[in-house]
């Protein structure tokens, strides 16, 4: 690839490291040549600035864009739109399969348009890690791992064959096979480099072209919101929708406004008995209260000197939970330690240190603090043991208050306050169940399984409990799903896996299990009892997501906790046990055992980490990371330039996005006479809009699968069927806990079709409106679309015929995704809402101002006509924020825009 850099600020320099010489764009040189004061920028903005300097071409990156980065220092904010080009793209298979399906569909569409399908290839490196497909069917025994792997390949054969085809058909595309680990942990331990290098042909202003090896900050976007985890390794990246990632893969820059940067100052150090999980739950709560949606967060202060990179990665991972675009940590001595420890090449580690120091990007204890838009502060010594729940990651509860807070939620959230002591006998068992009983205890998710300190602590709690004869309560489904094979290696090497096995935490698989909804079914007697008695059953998991309906359809209250606390709650068996003061169980002599009796000291945990984990473990486990096990290698691939779609497949189908597409887009028109598909309240998540978990037999998606001869046992999850638009359309707004206010008091994907007033599934109503040629709108409250960067929440919305979503506010990724699928996001003015308008759902809606030269952030008008014929007009803000986004919307979506450009 040839890069034309105008180099207006004479930043191109060379850097010699060992016996190698690299070209780089020097921030110090740029500061001397016109960008005054940039050395005091936040480290994260220095990464963006370098990206602009290196990619200055006078078209997508102008000199004025670069100057705007320096001007940011005056107000500590900017309304300047810039074009960011990430070095690479990361995917997991839930989101990655539909992205590769779209690329395959684009090749077909390119052929129809008379273009060259070979043009459809990733132009930047893409890594797809298959990590979201393993389900915890078997648990609590030595067979669990092998049994779950077997089921995984049986269920996902079609998807895996498709990915094997993609690996061979597309250039610049690698697949990390199943059973390796979670994408974010593999990224942290192996893929991420902190400083990236590539051979590049560079043409200067005089037209002279040379080939150089460039060094620049490692940056990425990922099709999973927790891509931010690698910010702990000083790699700037965040989650985007699959459609936005596809555009980045195809050479399109990410359009963004220069962000505000909130500084988070850390002082002191964590005290005895407090874990990184407790810290991240505290940070999440503080930043949610601060309000950082759409902003960068950057951590600084002397507290970083006592915070190992593994803890930083835990904090960075949960940026989506505190609402920020990213949670960035600068390079320092601990970054170098971690890169060395995890087996990165010696030359790469030396380059990272030399480059960061040359660029003024290396944090030292004596360095001046950067300038931030705003800041907040936390003394690490003030952090207390915590959990979060029962429904949101930011709802932190002090561990000492967990029991009374659960009882409070039992009344306020679940309306069961009068039934605190209710118990129901489990058929065929010697025990009964009640509200608050923990039926799932899962050590799961990238957030914590990447952190050896909390994983070792869990092993030590298990060892101490087993020594005293404690066991998990018989109704608890226990599981351990590490984020990488390295974790299994060090747990085995330390002897702690045997201890975890004794209390039911056997290895169930490598991947994102319970946190994504792959918790698997509860044992049938327990499931039946929970549902028949209408119990509020609980899960405790070491994950980052605990939204309604996500973890398991039988579980209504979900709590995030550190791995050692997950073990403790498995032993206690109930949220109605105060584990800080009440016994977890009794020892072999019948004496009560308390949490303090089995909790390890900070020093003991640190000793286990230091004495067990070696650089060799990482080198060996990642030596053949793309090879896969015998199951993967057995998959037969029939290659070809375009994919041979199987019309009988229920996993992979050619999506209809490009049907009837012409080389030129049609003009934008006003939306007239639209009907309301749904009225929703605040905090509607992408899980509500497009669930990832189990498919109910009686749901529209379930009926489709039954009609295609799929047995309910083989339904798999929505997430695994994201390559089939027929399933995903039917799953849109189908979360079992979603509440459409058009049908008050009813949970699930139900609406009312008008004018006939018939109640039916949202999918059935949408298809009826489609036949009637009636456009649709959705109304919502605040924070619409929070949660994972789920492209199907936008794709499904568009395929149902929704033309616009009118909300009080949007989460960043989902707003972008809606535009990427040609759906218009509109925001009520301050104080306005659909409730204030008095909507019931039987109205018709017209959106005016689209046809009159639509501009970014224009004020438009929503006219509502009520059933009695009266009308109301309300001004709304068009949340198409940039000119690039306007181009995408004008084309009907980002893929259409890219395809037309490539065809031209």
From TrEMBL:
InterPro entries: AcnA_IRP_Swivel (IPR044137), Acnase/IPM_dHydase_lsu_aba_1/3 (IPR015931), Acoase/IPM_deHydtase_lsu_aba (IPR001030), Aconitase/3IPM_dehydase_swvl (IPR015928), Aconitase/IRP2 (IPR006249), Aconitase_4Fe-4S_BS (IPR018136), Aconitase_4Fe-4S_dom (IPR036008), AconitaseA/IPMdHydase_ssu_swvl (IPR000573). It comes from the Bacteria. Its cofactor is [4Fe-4S] cluster. Residues 703-829 form the Aconitase A/isopropylmalate dehydratase small subunit swivel domain. CDD domains: AcnA_IRP (cd01586), AcnA_IRP_Swivel (cd01580). PROSITE patterns: ACONITASE_1 (PS00450), ACONITASE_2 (PS01244). Its EC number is 4.2.1.3. Pathway: Organic acid metabolism; propanoate degradation; Carbohydrate metabolism; tricarboxylic acid cycle; isocitrate from oxaloacetate: step 2/2. One of its GO terms (biological process) is tricarboxylic acid cycle. It catalyses: citrate = D-threo-isocitrate; (2S,3R)-3-hydroxybutane-1,2,3-tricarboxylate = 2-methyl-cis-aconitate + H2O. Keywords: 4Fe-4S, Iron, Iron-sulfur, Lyase, Metal-binding, RNA-binding, Tricarboxylic acid cycle. Residues 77-573 form the Aconitase/3-isopropylmalate dehydratase large subunit alpha/beta/alpha domain. GO terms for molecular function: 2-methylisocitrate dehydratase activity; 4 iron, 4 sulfur cluster binding; aconitate hydratase activity; metal ion binding; RNA binding. Belongs to the aconitase/IPM isomerase family. Catalyzes the isomerization of citrate to isocitrate via cis-aconitate. Involved in the catabolism of short chain fatty acids (SCFA) via the tricarboxylic acid (TCA)(acetyl degradation route) and probably the 2-methylcitrate cycle I (propionate degradation route). Catalyzes the reversible isomerization of citrate to isocitrate via cis-aconitate. Could catalyze the hydration of 2-methyl-cis-aconitate to yield (2R,3S)-2-methylisocitrate. The apo form of AcnA functions as a RNA-binding regulatory protein. Monomer. This is Aconitate hydratase. It comes from Microbaculum marinum.
